[in-house]
Write a structure and sequence with these properties.
Elements (H helix, E strand, L loop, with lengths): L4 H11 L3 H25 L5 H10 L21 H11 L4 H8 L8 H7 L13 H11 L1 E2 L3 E2 L2 H11 L3 H12 L4 H8 L5
Antiparallel strand pairs: 1-2
Length: 194
């Protein structure tokens, strides 16, 4: 099943442990969907829009399992993508959405990438393989649940610290999808740009 926006929201409400967690995560996911769909429109990309929107809206559903009372992320955050994929499998969500959710961390991670970062290693590659999966990854880089929008320079600085080899991947995505208008989005959602 490819869930509608309303069904995606209902899934978030089901797994969120508090209204605060729901607001942080749901708003972030809505923004990521908006970024991805704007990139599609601006570049006239051929995608499955319903699947892409649902994947964006559900990409962080596994994060609820790793949030403390204040909405801060606990350790092993990178595993939220795997948890989210399993939640969606249990809920009967389309396998393509499960894969997009599973593969959305840091523009894709190989087992070797996990070893280099020192993050919990699932001993498997999680690399986006479709344009929709790449768009979920790309849109997610430009906003975080803090809530704050991330400028391209901010994204590059984080990648340099955590996984410098991902800078080339980021540049490919910039060429493929263009740069979102963060100022318009920041004004709309009243979130700052870092």
């Amino acid at each position: 099943m490819i869930p509608t926006k309303q069904q995606c929201e209902e899934l978030h409400r089901k797994y969120a442990s508090s209204d605060k967690h729901f607001e942080l995560c749901w708003t972030h996911c809505v923004i990521v969907a908006e970024i991805a769909l704007r990139c599609v429109d601006e570049k006239s990309l051929e995608v499955d829009r319903a699947m892409l929107e649902a994947a964006c809206l559900l990409h962080d559903i596994g994060a609820y399992m790793l949030m403390n009372e204040d909405g801060e992320i606990t350790s092993y955050y990178n595993l939220h993508a795997i948890f989210g994929s399993k939640i969606l499998e249990e809920e009967g969500v389309d396998e393509r959405i499960q894969q997009a959710v599973e593969n959305h961390v840091m523009l894709g991670m190989t087992a070797d990438d996990y070893k280099k970062t020192g993050w919990a290693n699932p001993f498997k590659d999680y690399i986006p393989s479709t344009v929709e999966q790449r768009l979920v990854n790309y849109g997610d880089r430009f906003h975080s649940k803090v809530p704050i929008f991330n400028s391209l320079d901010s994204i590059k600085a984080k990648l340099t610290r955590v996984s410098p080899d991902k800078l080339q991947t980021l540049e490919k995505y910039v060429q493929e999808f263009g740069l979102p208008d963060l100022h318009a989005l920041a004004d709309k959602y009243n979130h700052p740009i870092a």
